[in-house]
Structure formats: C-alpha cells, structure tokens
Write a structure and sequence with these properties.
CATH architecture of the largest domain: 2-Layer Sandwich
Strand content: 25-35%
Number of helices: 9
Oligomer: single chain
CATH class of the largest domain: Alpha Beta
CATH topology of the largest domain: Chloramphenicol Acetyltransferase
Number of domains: 3
Structural class: alpha+beta
Largest sheet: 8 strands, mixed
Number of strands: 18
Distance between the termini: 59 Å
CATH superfamily of the largest domain: Chloramphenicol acetyltransferase-like domain
Shape: globular
Length: about 400
C-alpha cells in the first residue's frame, strides 16, 4: 500500500509552509512516528513525523514552499524492513507514476543564463556583482553585455555564501518592518538598581532550588513588575483594532527567547495569577521547547505585552521593536556595577538600563514614563511591592 503523506496545518491562519530540511533520504526505510522533515511556517518550525513504517519517496525538495494539505512524500508500507545496518541505508526507489510531484513556488536565484554566463566569464565579471533584470532576478544576455568590471576590483579568493532565508525568518523580517512603518513607535529609558533582587537571590537561591527544582532568576521579578505596572497603566496593555482601542483585563506576557531558527516569542498566560515559581517553571519549559524546535504556534500567539532580555547577550542599551499587534515591549539589558549616588554617597551598585518602546498613537508620554517608573520601583523594592512584605511566603518557602 502506498501512503500519501500530506502537510498538516500548523495553525488556523497558515496556508503554506516550507520544507526546511529533510531528515531522511529518498529511498530510506522509515519507522512510524520517526521525524522525517523539519517544516517552517511563518510562526514556528515543526517536525513532520512518519505516519507509517516503510520505504519513503520524497516529492518535494528542501527549500520548497508547499500548500497545507499537499502531498510531500509517499511511504510504501509493504516494503520489508532491512536487517541490521541496512535499515538506515537508501534502498531502490519505488516509482509511483500515477501521482504527480507537488507543485512548488519558485524563488529568485540571480543566476545568469548560459549566454550571459559565457559573456561574464569572458569579461572576468562575477555574476554576484550584476543586477539581473530577467524573471525572478535572472541575469540576461543584455545584462551581461552592459555589465562593466568595477575599477580596482580586488584579486584573490573572495568567497560569498548565498542562502535562502527560512520562512520564519522572512516572516519575522516582515513583522519587524511593519512595526517600524505602521506604528508611531517611541522609546523611553530608565535605570534600575538591582541590589535588592541580588540580595534576595543570594539569600534564597539554594532553598528555592531545593523546594522547586528551579533557579530563582530575574525573569520572574520582571514579569511580576510588568504585571503590576500594566495594572496601573492599562493603556500599555492594549492594542489598536481599526478605529477602536482594545484594553485587555488579563496579562499574557510574551517572552522573547532565542531559538535555533531565530527569535521566538512564547507566551506566559495569565501571569497575574502566577507565583514566582510558576513563572520560572513556565519560562523554563517554553525556552526548552523553543530551543528544541518543539514550540507550537498556539504557544506563541495572543500575548498582550512583551519582555525582551538582550542582556543575556551583553547588550547594554537598545530600543526594542514592538511585537505587533501589541503596543509595548520592555527591554532588559546587562547588569553592570557602576558608581551611583545612594543617600548622598557614591557607592558601587549593580545597575541595569531598562527601555520601553511603545505605540504613541494610544500611549501618551505620561503613561509610558509612569509605566517604566513603576517597573523601576518594583525592581528596587521587590519585598514591599511584589511580595506583600514576606519574601519567603512569596517564594513558596
């Protein structure tokens, strides 16, 4: 029996995906539920498991964009399982002529036509330096005729690698550009003295780890501080929908994390009802899933506000870009010991710059500055403002 494997829907609004990579070769024997491909949507990278055991015949190539529901491979379920090491070796392909290969979208390559290549070779011009005017950016014969070598062109080996961006990376690029072009984005800055949180982590780090099996990090403090500030300044926890402003009475905090395929933003839902240990555990689980490429579309949609921690990469100060359709994003940065004035004296303190980028169409300067000051106050006095005066109880100890 020949089983047709079709592209499953990664999410309700997704109609096309990209075959990021095949994890098997054409003609391999695969086992049921074995991961055979990585599939990129515009929101996440997912693994495609084999629906049955048998010999696989690929019907699309890595890099192809295919529609949801399209056939991307066949599995001959009647094929015999090879013995020993032969199980992973390619076997003779079974030709299935009754089902055509999937149609895929073509992308511009910028390659020259044969005639153009000959002319460019004769002129000693690298094709990469020529702008093609043909279909999909192809370099035509006329392009090659009019191309001229640049004066003072360096000699020697100057390799260039060209690769197609993944569907996820292209979608991220579109969203970031849209955020810059379609919002009145402005950024305000402040700084926070992190010594109180340092003291709490030093005092309760081991007992928190023993009780919950988790590290007491900074993200739980920032999430708690953000929720408190959003409750005081609800316009920051809102979005524009046409001519209306939608203000959310719940707090789903998106947390930007770095994954193997690029930036991902999973959501900590209903953070207002979560404890410190709940938040640390949820962020840990989401970060692991993002790192392993197992994060789902549902886990990355629906946030009302975003926290981005560029400090883990050494960023001292930045202007984070809004994650649409949200209206605000808080940027955390690295913590450095700096001389600051404390009670009229200069002391060395662990200081962090914090930044709020916001959509000025619905958030005024008063609200944006007030929000950031509220975050700063909570970070500098966490026991009073985030823990109801009882650190041990708040940490579940």
């Amino acid at each position: 029996m020949i089983l047709e494997m079709k592209v499953p829907s990664p999410g309700e609004s997704i109609t096309k995906v990209e075959i990021a990579d095949w994890l098997v070769q054409d003609g391999d024997y695969v086992e049921k539920d074995q991961a055979i491909a990585e599939v990129d949507s515009d929101k996440a990278t997912l693994e495609l498991p084999a629906e049955a055991s048998g010999t696989i015949t690929l019907q699309a190539e890595a890099g192809d964009t295919v529609s949801v529901g399209a056939v991307v491979c066949f599995i001959d379920t009647e094929a015999e399982r090879p013995d020993g090491d032969a199980a992973t070796a390619p076997v003779e392909k079974r030709v299935v002529s009754s089902v055509p290969k999937v149609d895929v979208e073509n992308y511009a390559t910028g390659d020259p036509s044969p005639a153009a290549k000959k002319i460019l070779d004769e002129k000693g011009i690298d094709a990469i330096s020529v702008q093609g005017t043909g279909r999909n950016g192809r370099i035509t014969k006329e392009d090659a005729i009019h191309a001229a070598p640049s004066m003072g062109t360096p000699t020697g080996n100057r390799p260039v690698t060209r690769k197609k961006m993944s569907l996820l990376r292209r979608k991220v690029s579109e969203r970031l550009l849209a955020a810059k072009n379609e919002t009145a984005m402005l950024t305000t800055f402040n700084e926070a003295n992190m010594s109180a949180i340092f003291d709490l982590r030093k005092q309760y780090k081991e007992s928190f780890q023993d009780k919950h099996g988790l590290s007491l990090g900074f993200m739980s403090f920032f999430t708690k501080a953000v929720v408190r500030a959003l409750q005081q300044f609800p316009d920051v926890n809102s979005m524009i929908d046409g001519n209306e402003q939608i203000v959310f009475d719940y707090y789903d905090i998106s947390v930007a994390v770095s994954g193997p395929k690029g930036l991902m933003v999973p959501v900590v839902r209903n953070a207002e009802g979560m404890s410190f240990s709940d938040i640390e555990n949820e962020i840990k689980l989401l970060a692991i899933r993002a790192r392993d490429g197992k994060i789902t579309v549902d886990e990355m949609t629906g946030g009302t506000f975003t926290i981005s921690n560029g400090g883990v990469f050494g960023s001292m100060l930045s202007t984070p870009i809004i994650n649409p359709p949200q209206s605000g994003i808080l940027g955390m940065h690295n913590i450095l010991e700096r001389p600051v004035a404390v009670d009229g004296k200069v002391e060395i303190q662990p200081m962090m710059y914090i930044a709020l980028s916001y959509d000025h169409r619905i958030i005024d300067g008063k609200e944006s500055v007030g929000f950031l000051v509220a975050v700063k106050e909570a970070l500098e006095d966490p026991i009073s403002l985030l823990m109801d005066g009882d650190a041990k109880k708040a940490l579940g100890l």
